[in-house]
Amino acid sequence: MWSRLAAAVLRSHRPLLFATAGTRSSAGPQKGAMQTAVVRCVPGEPKLTVSFCLDGSHKHMLRDQDEPVGKVLARIGNNLLKNQGKGKKKKKKCDEPSDGAQSSATEVRLLLDETPVEESVLNREAWRDGAVLCVGGVRYAVLRNAPTFTSAELPRSLMAGFPVCPKLQLEFGNMDDCEFTWLKETSAGSGETWQEVGSGRVFVPSNEDIGSRLQLRCSPKDREKSGLVKELQSEGAIEAGPGTCTFDTRHLFTGTQTQWPELRVVSYNILADVYAQTELSKTVLYPYCAPYALELDYRINLIRKELAGYNADLICLQEVDKGVFEDCLIPAMDAFGFEGVFRIKEKQHEGLATFYRRSRFRLLSSHDVVLSEALCSDPLHSDLLHNLSSRPDLKEKILKRSTALQVSVLQDLVQPERSLCVANTHLYWHPTGGNTRLVQMGVALTHLGHVIGSVSPGAALVFCGDFNSTPHSGVFELLTHSSIAQSHPDWLSSGPDHHCPMDLASPFPPLLSACGTPPYTNYVGGFKGCLDYVYIQPDHMEVAQVIPLPSHEEVTTYEALPSVSHPSDHIALVCDLLWSPQNKL
């Protein structure tokens, strides 16, 4: 198959003649059969491409759009002669009989309505749908800018019971119109055959499929227009899954999507691969976790199944590797009906991802910031920056942090007059960093107050993330009480040298922790505690349901997290929110 399928060939009123000889490949086009020549010709690009099969080999020609088509046809003829010359040598060696039809001169023409196209016609005009390229007795139907999968790839790790989501890039087509056929490898007598087992973009293998490889046939389409089928085969066979996972019971509460005025929200630190693969993680942080269960190929299977089973409308993820977002999450979440945005941390390889169900929301605008940069450059934070100046060591420490705040303003598609301001962050982690987190949260709240006050008035705030802050922390008090006093012990969290007491106030009335304060959302060998939250404004939204966290027995089945049944050291928070009546806004 061709990675980028493109164009076919054109011809003059006077047909070009090429002497041909040689054997005919059994894999090549046969005389009298209508083959396909695919042309990619995009306005504004200097080149076009023509792709077709000639004498059993795939040809991919890159030509100028402003070039006369006759030159392309001549090039095809030259290639044909070269191939036939090789065929002659092979025939002599094999003492094969010659093909009389191919030993004679072969016409190469480009026809439109069965009339030859003049050689002087430029490529960009000559190659069009309905044209026919004739090479001897072989006719090629020209497809111009046909729907094409420019890349397609199956995951390396396949497990029974876990969704398989191919990575696909489509050009000139509509993914919703495309057709997908899944087949598994079976043994029949002495040979191997393929048995159809499913359709659709996502396939979930069963235990009966363990040990078989997968094949996927992708048919690109745009309404009635079709392109060439792409076939993929998995590298390895389907393996057995881990059995019961920590999220399986939770999925019993989220078996269907919500209906307006409800919406389901997930906040989840999925454990970045860049951290999971360190020697510290393997030997100190998670020594109890089986090494294979820390591998990304294994964990991403669990993450995809967990997220799919929540049937959420809004998902905020932390510790998302850039490669994981692009190669693993986007293909899966797109297939599940989500659009996604990503914000990488400065000087890091991981960041924040927000996904929203495209049938429920539309992205209006993004207002992401790096908190330390905003503190220095935005006049909104001038008072806070001035207060920090009395403690230059603390100020320098805070300004070194690359913590980001991802802010997405979403429009509700059911009631377009309503909008959400979705904030997602992962605050500084260090045990002595309570004062740093307070400053970071002060910057975040001020920025969010500006976005809602000036950019999207009336938007309802949903603030998710791993705040690395327990319910006894200053950050929790600031969010739930709208202010924090100078006497709070977090101002002394990193010692008297960094003591910089100040009054911080939130621009919002007290926010509500929608999932409450569970005993823990992070459970590792040496620590357990509640660090993750979903905050809402009680006058804009209400809590309809909190999905129960896994039981302590489930969490500790393999001692702690992560484990073979849980992909992260954190537990996802999942809750159903309810829009408040308009008269409360």
Automatic annotation (TrEMBL):
UniProt keyword list: Exonuclease, Hydrolase, Magnesium, Metal-binding, Mitochondrion, mRNA processing, Nuclease, Phosphoprotein, Transit peptide
InterPro entries in alphabetical order: CCR4/nocturin_mRNA_transcr, Endo/exonu/phosph_ase_sf, Endo/exonuclease/phosphatase, PDE12-like_N
GO cellular component: mitochondrial matrix
Segments forming domain 2',5'-phosphodiesterase 12-like N-terminal: 147-239
Span of domain Endonuclease/exonuclease/phosphatase: 267-570
Intracellular or extracellular location(s): Mitochondrion matrix
Region named Disordered: 83-102
Cofactor: Mg(2+)
A GO term, aspect molecular function: poly(A)-specific ribonuclease activity
Pfam families found in the cross-reference section: Exo_endo_phos, PDE12-like_N
GO biological process, one term: mRNA processing
Predominant localisation class: mitochondrion
Source superkingdom: Eukaryota
Family listed: Belongs to the CCR4/nocturin family.
PANTHER family xref list: 2',5'-PHOSPHODIESTERASE 12 (PTHR12121:SF37), CARBON CATABOLITE REPRESSOR PROTEIN 4 (PTHR12121)
Protein name (Swiss-Prot/TrEMBL): 2',5'-phosphodiesterase 12
Organism: Knipowitschia caucasica
